[in-house]
Design goal:
This protein has 482 residues and is mostly beta strands. It contains five helices and 26 strands.
């Protein structure tokens, strides 16, 4: 078993309301502004109770100041009646649990008013231009690379200095050297609902020669009058602003009615194979420990989608041959450690218990037999945190920070940061710098507090660190100050 470091931060946990986790930034406190027309403001006692419940059960996903509810596309309506029904009875297919046993009807009513009154007073903000940020080892500013996006899920850097950006809505962009966005035709059709859409992008190791890239996304199909979805990967060749020779090289089985926990980060290993993550699709007790399904695993395939002969479960009857690890919940960070050559990943825990893990061939990471968290509505998932045969995380966050995006810092542009691991936080809206010694995480520094939901973190070939923030979608470059 490997040691881990546990990070404790003020209580603020995950709730997956309506359309998944996505937020805009706001500086106002709910309940202190104006009420919607015809709705009385919460009293002091009511406000304190509603704020406490929101902080403990909702803020991790939706922000301390209800950021995701501002300018929201309400999938199930935003009337008091619709919100009450959503909170009380839930929508399991989107990952929203029922809270009928967690809250009384009075508490739900107060929570509805708290949300609606917070939305009424919500305002947006973004990083101050020219501000110098002071970290432990250096100072830096933020260069605003591009604005006007919504949910920039991933970035990839082209050899000519341009950038490719995936928008979760299904659009693939080229960002030119003069910072103009150009749409690329030929991206896969996606189901942009809940946490689904156009997800990660990865360039082929020989992109300079073949212009081949890979896109992960939520594929869908109609069956018996229902729309089912799954995680899929497309291989294509980039020709100007068009994708050609598109081929689906991975299609997870089985399809599901749910709209969350798709994964799916991708990274090429030094062995030349494509590693990628797939979430459990909400099948907490069914998928992660079941080798006959793809969900809740890390996978390894060849660039054409075929299976490496030495994958750990190739010879096991009934097992999906692409599986490399299992017992994973929903990993949205995957990076090659430049020192060891091993794959590192982080994955979302439930209400508490986000993890950093080192990817080991055939390893079981325990979900959902073991966990450091509980379910979103406060119910217990497992009584144990360790188990024989389960590989322990090397780092956990309690409560959850909702990690997304992951990059090891290389090069010498950032004095004192070389070798650090950078992870975005969507729930607490900061950039985490984890110090690393061998296979141990020795500390954490939190940068850019309240910058927004950090969806992706990347190192550019010229040695700069980039982050993508969502709703509003902005990409920043960290510029060290001498």
């Amino acid at each position: 078993m490997q040691p881990f470091i546990k990070t404790i931060i003020p209580l603020s946990l995950l709730l997956a309301l309506f359309t998944g986790c996505s937020k805009n930034t706001t500086s106002n406190t709910a309940g202190s502004g104006s009420a919607p027309s015809g709705e009385a403001l919460l009293t002091g006692t009511e406000l304190a109770s509603a704020r406490s419940n929101y902080t403990n059960y909702c803020a991790g996903c939706h922000g301390q100041n209800l950021e995701t509810f501002v300018d929201r596309k309400w999938l199930h309506g935003n009337s008091p009646e619709a919100l009450f029904k959503s909170i009380k009875h839930g929508f399991p297919e989107t990952g929203m649990l029922a809270y009928d046993t967690t809250f009384t009807d009075t508490e739900i009513t107060q929570l509805v008013r708290y949300i609606r009154q917070g939305v009424a007073s919500g305002q947006k903000k973004q990083a101050s231009k020219g501000k110098v940020f002071q970290a432990q080892d250096l100072s830096f500013t933020l260069d605003t690379v591009v604005t006007g996006l919504d949910v920039p899920w991933a970035m990839a850097f082209l050899p000519n200095g341009e950038m490719l950006i995936t928008e979760r809505s299904g659009i693939l962009y080229r960002l030119t050297k003069d910072r103009q966005l150009q749409k690329i035709e030929g991206a896969p059709e996606v189901l942009a609902q809940g946490q689904g859409g156009l997800l990660d992008i990865e360039l082929h190791p020989d992109f300079n020669k073949n212009q081949v890239l890979f896109l992960s996304y939520s594929a869908f199909k109609k069956e018996d009058g229902q729309t089912l979805s799954t995680t899929a990967i497309m291989r294509a060749r980039l020709d100007g602003n068009t994708l050609k020779e598109q081929k689906q090289i991975f299609e997870a089985q089985p399809y599901a009615r749910t709209r969350h926990h798709y994964g799916c980060r991708m990274e090429f290993g030094r062995d030349g194979y494509l590693y990628f993550t797939m979430g459990d699709r909400g099948g907490t007790k069914v998928n992660p420990q079941n080798l006959t399904v793809h969900a809740g695993k890390t996978h390894r395939i060849k660039e054409d989608g075929s299976i490496p002969a030495d994958n750990p479960f190739v010879g096991q009857q009934g097992a999906m041959k692409s599986i490399y690890t299992y017992g994973n919940r929903n990993a949205q960070g995957l990076a090659l450690n430049p020192t060891s050559g091993e794959m590192w990943l982080h994955e979302h825990g439930p209400k508490g218990g986000d993890e950093v893990n080192i990817v080991k061939k055939g390893a079981n990471y325990g979900w959902a037999d073991v966990t450091y968290g509980i379910d979103y509505n406060g119910t217990k998932i497992s009584d144990i945190q360790k188990k024989p045969g389960v590989t322990d995380p090397i780092h956990i966050w309690v409560p959850s920070i909702a990690p997304s995006g992951m990059a090891f810092l290389t090069g010498d542009r950032y004095k004192g940061w070389k070798g650090s691991l950078f992870v975005g936080s969507m729930s607490f809206k900061f950039l985490s710098r984890l110090t690393v010694a061998g296979n141990t995480i020795t500390g954490e520094e939190r940068l850019l507090q309240d910058i927004g939901r950090v969806r992706d973190v990347r190192m550019s070939p010229d040695g700069y660190l980039y982050i993508a923030v969502e709703k509003p979608g902005i990409i920043y470059r960290l510029m060290p100050v001498e």
